[in-house]
Amino acid sequence: MPKNQKYSGVPAPKSLTRTVTADGDSVKYSFEGTGSDGAALNYSFTVKYDGKDYPTTGSGMPYGADHIAIKRLSSNKFSATLKKDGKIIGTSISTVSKDGKDYHAQRKGHRRR
After folding, report:
1. Which residues have a Cβ under 8 Å from the Cβ of 106 and sit 6 or more positions away?
2. Distance of alpha carbon 97 from alpha carbon 95, whole angstroms
3. Distance from C-alpha of 68 to C-alpha of 95, rounded to nearest angstrom
4. What tens digit of pLDDT does each residue of 79-94 get?
């Protein structure tokens, strides 16, 4: 996975390390770092790329999400839906280049009603 990420439209965290570990058909994502406001970021989730909701744990999850659903769109592209209290609060489309050196994510937060 690429080591550098560029941010636009949202404040970038001061630091962020993402660890992705495959275990059979499940994938665990762990994030540790410091947010743009200096708050600690330490959250994780384990998912299958099946579009079903999985719980998140820790603090600093984007938009305060408590569940995430990820669906594979192609071999190097996937979509994610973030939820809080059962309501969609954010979405993203992520693409990893075929050579694995570049990562691009388009994220969108949603207003809670």
Report:
1. 92, 93, 94
2. 6
3. 17
4. 999 999 999 999 999 9
Q: Is 7 left (phi over 0), alpha (psi -120 to 50) or beta?
A: beta
Q: Measured in whole angstroms, how far is the alpha carbon of residue 63 from the centre of its chain? A: 11
* Model pLDDT for residues 25-53, shown as the tens digit of each residue: 999 999 999 988 999 999 999 999 999 99
Measuring CA to CA, how many Å separate 35 from each of 25, 43, 63, 66? 31, 12, 13, 18
CA dihedral (53, 94, 37, 65) in degrees, to 10, reads: -10
Closest CA relative to residue 42, chosen from 70, 13, 22, 68: 13
Which amino acid belongs to residue 9? G
Of 102 and 34, more confident: 34
* Global pTM value: 0.82
Amino acid identity at 33:
G
